[in-house]
């Protein structure tokens, strides 16, 4: 029997990156999603293209051998597929992991005895996303307690860092996905070592993921979101447009200089190597061939302003170290000012929290920062400023 992968989330990263790599490595891909129109389109379209664009030109990959299942309305079909799959991956967004866990748990529970354990890899922009998913799967609501002791015989979990810019797609593009040429997919290998590491071409298997994910999240995502939030507040359309503004570029460079201090001091990464990495990232996010709207890159501000994320995560640590966080605070302020109410539920929720709470409560609710932390008073000042301006509007 051929190799089978179940991938949750047939969106941009799902179709454009993860499924493309699985397909190129010989897997049949079963997409699990909840969007009916997308599921129908996948099942009615025998192939789609992944189109890489950059200054070096354009390359195309054709993806075949896939189908899609609605994980809400066709749960039992999906449980069958998961019980026989080699691998489950997902790119649904960190807040959705709890919703996909029950069906994965049921599929795992049904795996025939003696089958190689299911390899589970979450591909989200979050530290420890697979661990988070595993916790939901192993929650007593989803897996009976008497099945936990030998759960490792049925499933193994590895965290990953995934990096590729996939902008929102042209509505007329069908299933085709246009994305940047660059990619990085780093996965922990230790959880799989005794049961076999999946043969997925392009994955960099490592023992210790922490430096990779922190470097990625606190450089690519911090820089990208900094450009997007400043760009949004200065009415720029795309991240490329934002970076043409030298004040915004200075903010991005400033923020990445600050996170560089953390990355270099915390991990075994040389300053020169991090400087070169930053330069490469600034070029990537400024790719003129990607029509990447500031609204997409700034999406979900509550998630992006949360404790372990791209702004508060590094800024809180740097503040404790006594390092400057001026530019990170500027970006945080712009994130608090992101008000894309029509398209972004989280920005509405953020505005509600801002209007119903004092600045101290906002900082504790949104950023989970405690009053005894060094960054706390600086965050309170930021929130006060944004609240004062919105009262004037
Ligand atoms: N787009 C990008 O450049 C990158 C995105 N990521 C991460 O990948 C994840 C997905 O991002 P995108 O692909 O851009 O988003 P997207 O919005 O294009 O795709 C998400 C997909 O998940 C589906 N979905 C939502 N709820 C679901 C559920 N309960 N069960 C199954 N499917 C469900 C949606 O219908 C959609 O098709 C996020 O965590 C993001 O941070 C990571 C690196 C790059
Ligand atoms: O949902 P998030 O965290 O914004 O994830 C998407 C981000 O990940 C990146 O692709 C970087 O890998 C950015 O392009 C993009 O903004």
TrEMBL record:
User: What is this enzyme's EC?
Assistant: 1.1.1.17
What species is given as this protein's source?
Emericellopsis atlantica
Function text: Catalyzes the NAD(H)-dependent interconversion of D-fructose 6-phosphate and D-mannitol 1-phosphate in the mannitol metabolic pathway.
A single GO molecular function, which one?
A: mannitol-1-phosphate 5-dehydrogenase activity
GO cellular component: a single term: cytosol
Q: Which domain of life is it from?
A: Eukaryota
Q: What is this protein called?
A: Mannitol-1-phosphate 5-dehydrogenase
The GO biological-process annotations, alphabetized, read as: mannitol catabolic process
Q: Reaction catalysed by this chain?
A: D-mannitol 1-phosphate + NAD(+) = beta-D-fructose 6-phosphate + NADH + H(+)
The record's NCBIfam families line, in alphabetical order, gives: PRK02318.2-5
Q: Where is the Mannitol dehydrogenase N-terminal domain?
A: 3-194
Summarize subunit and interaction data from the UniProt record for this chain. Answer: Monomer.
The residues forming a coiled coil are none
Keyword annotations of the record:
NAD, Oxidoreductase
Ranges for domain Mannitol dehydrogenase C-terminal: 208-374
> What Pfam families is this protein classified in?
Mannitol_dh, Mannitol_dh_C
Q: Which residues form the signal peptide?
A: none
Its family remark reads: Belongs to the mannitol dehydrogenase family.
